[in-house]
Amino acid sequence: MIELVFTRRYSMAHRLISGLSPKCATPHGHNEFVTVSLAAVDEVSLDHSTNMITDFASAKGAWHEWIDDHIDHGFQLSDKDPLLIWAREHGQSWRIIVTPGDPTTEMLCALYKAKCNAFLEANCPVLRCTTVRLEETPTNTVVFTGDPYEHLLKTEGKDHWWERPDMSTHDLD
């Protein structure tokens, strides 16, 4: 099997309010690396005229744009965080990423995998994201290979931001 692997670096801020990590209840930031591994939906041979599964621009274009223009320097908040009220009133220019529950590295991996697959379905349907690796710090990394919907909301008749192949990062509007 051939995998295409793409890495992006971005800066972010978040806070965790569940109480499991009291130190992380204070807004703070990280410089993170997110790596996605993409594989063909069906076993395919290389196209011998190009020797590629698909062109890299189709495979990574929307994903890289989303990370660079909407996730980088974003503030990740739980959908239950009272700071969302303040952000709605005062932070129109903020890049807000709203997660179901605390924006942990584990949750972000599931959200990123779902979002990456939404982009691929729309722009490059021959590929699917198989793995998301998110390095929060040089000593803390989460690798996600499962079904993101085992951890994410799936509401009949409603598409959440992580299910749409657009540049959204929340459903506040």
Describe the structure.
The protein has 173 residues and is of the alpha/beta class. It has a domain at 54-130. It is built from three helices and six strands; from the N terminus they run E-E-H-E-H-E-H-E-E. It has helices spanning 56-71, 83-90, 105-123; strands spanning 3-14, 28-40, 74-78, 96-99, 127-137, 140-144. Strand 3 (74-78), helix 2 (83-90) and strand 4 form a beta-alpha-beta unit. Helix 1 crosses helix 3 (105-123). The longest helix has 19 residues, at 105-123. The N and C termini lie far apart (41 Å). The model has no long low-confidence stretch (mean pLDDT 92).
List the helices and strands and how they pair.
Elements: E1 3-14, E2 28-40, H1 56-71, E3 74-78, H2 83-90, E4 96-99, H3 105-123, E5 127-137, E6 140-144
Parallel strand pairs: 1-3, 3-4
Antiparallel strand pairs: 1-2, 2-5, 5-6
Helix pairs in contact: 1-3
What does this entry show, briefly?
Helix content is about 25%, strand content about 30%. The chain is an alpha/beta fold. It has a domain at about 55-130.
Distance between the termini: 41 Å
Q: Strand-and-helix sequence, N→C?
A: EEHEHEHEE
What count of helical segments does DSSP give?
A: 3
Question: Which descriptor suits the 3D outline?
Answer: globular
By secondary-structure content and strand pairing, the structural class works out as alpha/beta
Radius of gyration of CA atoms, rounded to a whole number? 17 Å
Poorly predicted runs are none
Question: What is the total tally of β strands?
Answer: 6
Q: Profile the largest sheet.
A: 6 strands, mixed
Helix content: 10-25%
* Fraction of residues in β-strands: 25-35%
Mean pLDDT score: 92
Instruction: Please state how the strands of the largest beta sheet are arranged side by side.
Output: 4-3-1-2-5-6
